[in-house]
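Support case: glutamic acid complex. Customer-provided input:
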Amino acid sequence: MATEDNNPWKRSQEKLRAIAKKIHLDPLLLAELEEPDRIITTSLPIRLDNGNIQTFTGYRVQHNNVLGPYKGGIRYHPQVSMDEVKALAFWMTVKCAVINVPFGGSKGGITVDPKSLSENELRELTYVFSRKLARAIGPEIDVPAPDVNTNPTIMGWLVEEYEKQVKSQKSKVKTSLTDNQLKAVVTGKQVDQGGSLGRTEATGLGGFYALMHVLKKLGLNPKDMTVAVQGFGNVGYYAAEFFYKEGIKVVAVSDSKEGIYVKEGLNPDKTLACKKEKGMLSGCYCIGSVCDVKNGKQITNKDLLELPVDILVPAALENVITAENAANTKAKIILELANGPITIEADTILAQKDTMVIPDILANSGGVCVSYYEWYQNMHNEKWTKEDVFKKLKKQMEEATNDVWTISKEKGVSLRDAAYIVALQRIQNAWKHEH
Ligand code: GLU
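Agent response - structure generated as follows:
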């Protein structure tokens, strides 16, 4: 068997072309979507705590802004590459269209292992990146957010430096926005720095709402189901917690190092508290308060994907379900909370065994949806309650899930293809008004 080419950018473009052909997308629009509008590669030198200079590479890819300002997260990870960021930016363009928020797509990243830097070094790195990007981003231009290994604190540093640049005497960035509106340059901020209540939970919660809606359509009772979640960061943890509260049995979770499998089901909240205390997941399954859950077993990240569960949730990185292991997965439903966790070949294998995949561009769109609410609150000087945010998110996730479900049934295509059809048609409708 030829080795799979899992270059995410090639994969994403293959998908784009296949769907464009299916729906006779205007070839001019296709050509526009086949390359990003703008690519920024920038070198980021910082002074380390020991006095040495180290230079990192940062990227920002602005893919398309037909629907509104470019929008997308920034990740800090050793694997960050230009092609990965390009794919992730393209996925943001389609994701924003599926969830129906008035944003285009972008993405950024720095090739770095953030765990190897001190807090001071990480802040310096973020400041330099913000300085380099200051003239390319803005509330009405391009709006970064958190992604893998970035968080509200890092978003706060980005905003701080951006504001400094905009307000400095020598500033070349001209803006007529108020101080409050300027904060909309980045979403996923701390609440006291202009962040929205509910943004932290949003990606996991949005995925939960999408899953509940699909289970309802399938006539399945969540309380009869088991789930395994790969990735115990912000997205995976909250998803697991919402599943647990609904009565879905969470039998396995994993972080970047290892996983635990507890057949009787585990409590995500207690597991997280314990992981923080012990420093590792496997230290938890039979220690202290979580010890009441018996028969815990240490597993690898790879094992988790092949567990006998009803629902599998990859919530970490791309390309984890491939031609090699797709046939071994047992779940009937896969909820993609990571971006691009299933390769194209794996997708075909899963379709052959009737695994239902709720695709990333729908399943994890709750994050950018609440990012839009945050942006909107900053721009209009409003503050919404958490209940309000969750209520709006539920409605918007259910509407998007319905749109995708309907097209899937009407055209007899997978949920992934249906999500792409919904997105590309929305983009084409807006694009036609400009041409
Ligand atoms: N990084 C998240 C994603 O991949 C959120 C993006 C945002 O809120 O702009 O969807």
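The two ends are 45 Å apart (CA to CA).

Case will auto-close in a few days if no follow-up is received.
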